[in-house]
Structure formats: structure tokens, C-alpha cells
Amino acid sequence: MSRHQNLNHVYPNAQQNQPMFSRHLTAFGSHWLPPTQAPLGGWRNVHFPSYPCRPGVPPPPQLSHPTRHLSGAFQPQDTHNTNWARLQSKQHLPPGFPFHGFPHRHFQLGLMECSDKEPPYKRRRSSDERAPGDRSKGSPKREYAPRQARSAATSPNCWFKDGKPPPPGTSPPRQALELKRQWEDFSHCYKSRPQSGGGRREPPFEFSVMSYNILSQDLLHDNNYLYKHCSSSILNWNHRLSNILKELKEHNADIMCLQEVQEDHYEKQIKPSLEALGYQCEYKRRTGRKPDGCAVVYKKDRFSLLSSHPVEYFRRGIPLLDRDNVGLVLLLRPTGSSRPEDCVCVANTHLLYNPRRGDIKLAQLAMLLAEISTVSRLPDGSSCPIILCGDFNSVPWSPLYSFVRESRLEYDGIPIGKVSGQEENPRGQRILTVPIWPLSLGVTQQCQYATAPTDVDRGITNLSVQDFAEPPMAAMNRPSIEHSLRLTSAYSHYLTEDSRPEITTCHSRTAITVDYIFYSAGTGDISTQPEGPLPRHGLQLLARLALVGQTDLEAVNGLPNEHNSSDHLPILACFRLCP
């Protein structure tokens, strides 16, 4: 008997008489919810008032009570140990923000401090560049105690200096706290389709997607100044691997897009563990001597692989593209379907970190969008549904983020350091050049691969090479770039109960959102669509795993901590293929 492709089967361990996602709600704190009359049991049935919404942003669920993110009695830590800067600038506000009914406050993000020094690079030097046993030119050597060596009397989730417990006579450490995240349900916003002809109709295909930067252990070693708030046992790879695999198993997503996946750990530990859970794994290591990369894994009983396309952003001979970041694009087909329009194009990337090189980030993104446009194209010229995940190292409403969401960016006069919005006040930044990337890259200003037009394509003859070159050159000289994918975000980037910014990454120097799940919204999706016709094939957002705010993360000692072993939080969303 064929498997029903509905929400109950996105999570196959759920019993028939249980509400949707009940197992996952138990894992993320459904017992903290007060009794409700919602028909979905542990899920909160959310309702949307009629107020303005930024184009493409899903209306946030309205809660009848505050969200509880933490378990255990606690008192928030003092924040004098953190230097997180805050941004209250209208340039990061969406038009019309704040919404009616919310407090009138600016969109705030904890951004990196700005100084005249060059920003520290994540991973300054790979292990391959150092002599065996020599760490003198990299980060200071740091020993990591084995997990079993921890004392039962102390919790490694406390802010110990250099991982050492407090001296005798001081107050005992608090119990390690754990984040509790809740699912936000939107499925009730969609009308059920009527049965046609009195026959039984196949349910629409529904599936879940995760994006998660799991923090490469090699990067952790080379940037350990970011994790001085953590004890050595928390940073030990065996402890971290156990927590990460536990998270992946509990979330049980049909598709997982992972970043900072270290190659040796992937081959020996992560890949075998995921294959044992029924996943097929695709991986692309970063170019050069970088030891980590991006992985896209999917359940073999839910999808079949049609094609896999690694994308390398390094281009020899182009100074702008001398970095080793990569992307990975997969074309998947739902099990049991043979229609081309039912395919899903899934892309995963980790863009350059450097907050002062927005020109490189935009060029990398343009290369990825060109590949997605090619892979997702259907025989009739339209595109199949697209899901774009990853760590974009850019904050919400920044120029780079707006380019993804609004399909166009007018960049005349934009400083390079403001493209990603990571720094509050970047100094000494030059303006983006026109064009941003050279014509020799082979990517147009419309983020398409440049191909020489033929006589048949143009319907004309007797044209010279110069005639073909003129239109692309004219376009390259305009200070604007665009794409045709029409993507929106699965998250609204602020918390429902108090409009605080959502946080996806947090360590000792910053707490911001840089991780996203973008998707091509189809007919009837709850997000407010941009102007223009809707795509013929798209997705409907059914649910998402709620994020938390900065104070919630401060209360659990930031990231990583005893229970969360990366400096990023996983983000998850559930979708339905539009009929």
C-alpha cells in the first residue's frame, strides 16, 4: 500500500490517533503549553488579524499566551559579560514596520562591533597549512577534556573562565537550562480541496526541510576566542557530535541542508549515521585547503535524486572571486510522482563571512542563483518549486537579503560594508562598483548564465560579434541586478509575542539572524505575495519551528552550550506542493 503523503507522514512515528507533529511537540516543550481547544492538540491554532504585512512575509501567528522558551526555574544572567551591539536604524526596517497592534519599536539586532582593525576571518588557517603538531601560527592550542572527566557536581553550562569551576566556598552553579522551541502551525489557513467526481483524490505531497550550520570543529579551534564562555567539555567533538546527531534524529526532517560539515567527520561519522536513518547524502567540500563544506541529505523513501550540481565560487583569474565558499543544488522528485512539475529544486550554501566584502557575497549569490535557474527550469520554460537554504552571513532587511526577497537590487551608492548589515557602522568602505562582477564570469546582471544568442533565437541574421556583445555590456553598466526566482522567507524574523528579533546564531561577540529558508510560494500561500503573477508551481508554508530571542539565549549561556552544540540554531519548516 502506497504511503500517504500528508503531514502525519512527514513524521511517520506519530500514531494515527495523535495530532500532527505530536512527537516533535513533546521533544520541544509541548508540555509547557496550557490547555487549548485547538483541533490540533499540542499545536497552537493561530489566527491572523487583518494588518499590513511586508510583501512575501508570512503573517506571524498570534498567540493567546506568551511563548515559553526555557525549562527549569532560572534567573537571567547579567549581561555585563557581553559586548553585543544593538542596531536601531531605519535602513533595516521593512516598509510599514512595525505592524499594527505591536509595540512601536525599531527592528533591533545584536551586531558585531566595528573597529579600524580587519574583521577576524572564520578559519584563518587550515590544518593542512600547519606543520604536524604546530599551532604557533594559528590559534593558541587548547586542550579539550574528555566528556567523562566532567564532575557530577558542576555543570559545564556555566560561565567558567577557561572551563574551570569556581573556587571553593562560592555558590554552586545553576542547573543547565535547555531551550524549548515550539511549532507554529499554519495548516488551518488553507481550505481543504473538494472531491471531484465523487472519487478519492490523492492527498498533496507534504514534507519538512531543515537548515543547520553545525559548526566545523576545525573552525571552532581556530576561532576559540568566540567561545570563551564555554567549558572545554562542551567544545569536545565527541560531546558535540552526540548532541548534533541527536538533534538531527529528533527533528526527523525529510530534507536537511547542513553547513560547516567537516569532511573527515562527515565521511567517518555523520554520513554513516544518517544513512542508517534512511537518508541519502550529497556533499560538496570547499575548494582549496578548507576542510569543511555543505551537505544536502534527504530521505530515500520520500525523494529520488534526479541530478546533483556542486557550485564552486572560486574563479581563477577573477580577483573578486578568490574565496573558497561553495554551494550545492539538487533536483529531487517526490516518491511515487512522475510529473516534471512535482520536482523540487533544493539549494544549500554558505556565503563568505567577511562583513566588509559585500561585493564578493553578491557575486557568489549571483552564481548560485544562475545555477538554480538552470536546474529548476521545466520543459515549458517555467520553474519547479525552489527551496534555498543556508548561512548567508547577512541580516534581515540588508541589501543582500532584500535582493533575494525582492528579486532586484539597485546598488548605486551602497558601501560594500553595508551589503550584509553585519556591522553597525562600517568604516572606510568603498562603494560597490558598476558592474559588481566582470562579464568574464559568464553570469548576467539577471543572474543567468550568459550564452551567445543564435540566429534562430534572435530571428535575425548577419549580425557581428559586436552586435551580440552590445546588449549584455549595456546591461552590465547599469547599477542594478535582478533574478526571476520570486522567493520569500519561511520566517518573519521577529518574535510573535513582543516583536523582538529572532536569533539564529549567537556566540560571545554577536547575536543575529544569518540563516534562512527561502522558498517559491505558490497559489494560496499564507505569505503576502509581491506584485506580479504567481509562479505556476510553488509551495505552501504549513508550519515552522519557532526561534528565540537574544535574552532567551543569554539565559542558557549563549551558544554552544550543554544541550546545543553549535553556535547556530537549526531552522525548520514544513511545506506542501501546490496542486
Radius of gyration, taken over Cα atoms and rounded to an integer in Å? 24 Å
User: Which descriptor suits the 3D outline?
Assistant: globular
Number of helices: 11
Structural class: alpha+beta
The residue-averaged pLDDT reads 75
Unreliable parts: 1-56, 62-109, 123-163, 452-470
Number of extended strands: 22
The proportion of residues in beta strands is: 15-25%
Strand order of the largest sheet: 1-6-21-22-7-8-10-9
**Distance between the amino and carboxyl termini:** 22 Å
The residue fraction in helices comes out at 10-25%
Instruction: Summarize the biggest pleated sheet.
Output: 8 strands, mixed
Pfam families: Exo_endo_phos
InterPro entries: CCR4/nocturin_mRNA_transcr, Endo/exonu/phosph_ase_sf, Endo/exonuclease/phosphatase
GO molecular function: 3'-5'-RNA exonuclease activity; mRNA 3'-UTR binding
Protein name: Angel homolog 2 (Drosophila)
What do these coordinates show?
There is one protein chain. The chain has 579 residues and is α+β, with helices and mostly antiparallel strands. Helix content is 17%, strand content 18%. The radius of gyration is 24 Å and the shape is globular. The protein starts with 6 loop residues before the first helix and ends with a strand. The relative contact order is 0.17. The N terminus is likely disordered.
